[in-house]
Amino acid sequence: MAQDSEHFRDSIGTINEDGKRAWVYPKKPSGKLYEYRKYVSYALLLFLVASPFIKINGNQFLMFNVLERRFNIFGFPFWPQDFHLFVISMIIGVVFIALFTVAFGRIFCGWMCPQTIFLEMVFRRIEYWIDGDRGAQIKLDRQEWNAEKIRKRTLKWFLFFIISFLIANVFLAYLIGSDRLIRYVIDGPLQHVGTLVSLLIFTSVFYFIFAWFREQVCIIACPYGRMQGVLLDNKSIVVAYDHKRGEGENGRKKFRKSEDRNALGNGDCIDCNQCVNVCPTGIDIRNGTQLECVNCTACIDECNTIMDKVNLPKGLIRYASEDEIVKKEKFKFTPRLKGYTAVLFILTGILVGMLFLRNDLEATILRLPGQLYEHKPNNVISNVFTYKLINKTTKNVDDVHFKLLSHKGNIILVRHEDFDVPAQDLSEGTLFIEINNSALKDDKEKLEIGVYSGDKLIETTTTSFLAPRSYK
Ligand code: SF4
Ligand code: SF4
Description:
By secondary structure, the protein is of the alpha+beta class. It has 17 helices and 16 strands. It folds into two domains: 1-142 and 215-358, no CATH class; 361-471, Immunoglobulin-like, CATH 2.60.40.10. The strands form five sheets. Strands 8, 9, 10, 12 and 14 form a five-stranded antiparallel beta sheet that branches. Strands 13-11-15-16 form a four-stranded antiparallel beta sheet, with no helix packed on it. The protein has a three-stranded antiparallel beta sheet with strand order 3-4-5. The longest helix has 30 residues, at 147-176. It binds iron/sulfur cluster (2 copies). Residues 239, 278-281, 283, 285, 293-299 line the site of one iron/sulfur cluster (SF4).
């Protein structure tokens, strides 16, 4: 029987027998789930495009400025000093996706992944609009270059380029910040040739991905796709073909009017191949869960339409686990899921706690390397320090000065007295701390220093102070 063949395992769906790329011409999807996916995609596209332009307390909502090592996540600015928070956020993201994958398979790929959304909901829909549905696309591809083909290809490639260019701009807004991007646009591209070149490189990459590489990203390049084999088990809910029902006793058979399929022992699958034709990764879901399946649900919609037409119950392809199909078991919260959920809660708790404990102004005061201490008149010991103040807010911090909180003594700034720390910037300098020997109990004393803005204590920090051994 065809369904017993393991031939499909010999190669991935988009490579033909000669080892060449088998171009996929998926049928235009339609159905209830596709409609839902459209709404989800519109919302996510809006989120993706708007996020770099939304400000919270003056901070860009999402920004990943790798070059300057500045990140904003949900309006919280992260500096290199907050890298641990950034790492925890990333770990939470990975655990979150892993948890969902264990429970619901590649639901992220089908419904939320930017690659799927842009490809299926933007580029592919332009293609359907210009080239037509599957049959028309195959015909156009095979036909000689004539006026119609030149017109359609030129229009399609031009639109693909424009959209890739817009995506590259949004991408750049995430990287360098939307304010800077807008400033560059107003200045004109010739004022920022380097940025223009980067923009064109990004545009070419997006164009290459969406015009040509397409589903290969999910099949070959995406590391998340490769993890499926480890994360999925028989209890994971995935887009699945109900092989028990579809194959029956005698396997799938073509549909014949007025036949009694039950009596004949035929499965409910009428072998119409529509689920294969509609698949954007070119696979046959009836072969079981496969690496290439991005859980886009197009085959569910398509099969439901067919089932409607032949008066059979819908859901031959549906969201289901292997255990549900074979053993009729319902979804269970397995120990593995409980473990992932516990880890997720703990990490989220740690992150929230750290975010609350994080200060808007971070102060570091360190002894100048290689320097010991200096004796001053009146039995005073002096140490020299460097200070660094990072203002993570969007407002200037004015009239900043330091006070010794733990000891009696003086703090003397080298260059100036009170100073300002500009918004989202840092201030560095050198200072001396002078303490009378009578106040020192150890040769290495821990000091607590307050950072004040005017009269307001805004941060405390500690540092160590060296004194001669005789003071022990
Ligand atoms: S669309 Fe449904 S009936 Fe048609 S081949 Fe696929 S599983 Fe069988
Ligand atoms: S098998 Fe179905 S769900 Fe999976 S990628 Fe193909 S059409 Fe989408």
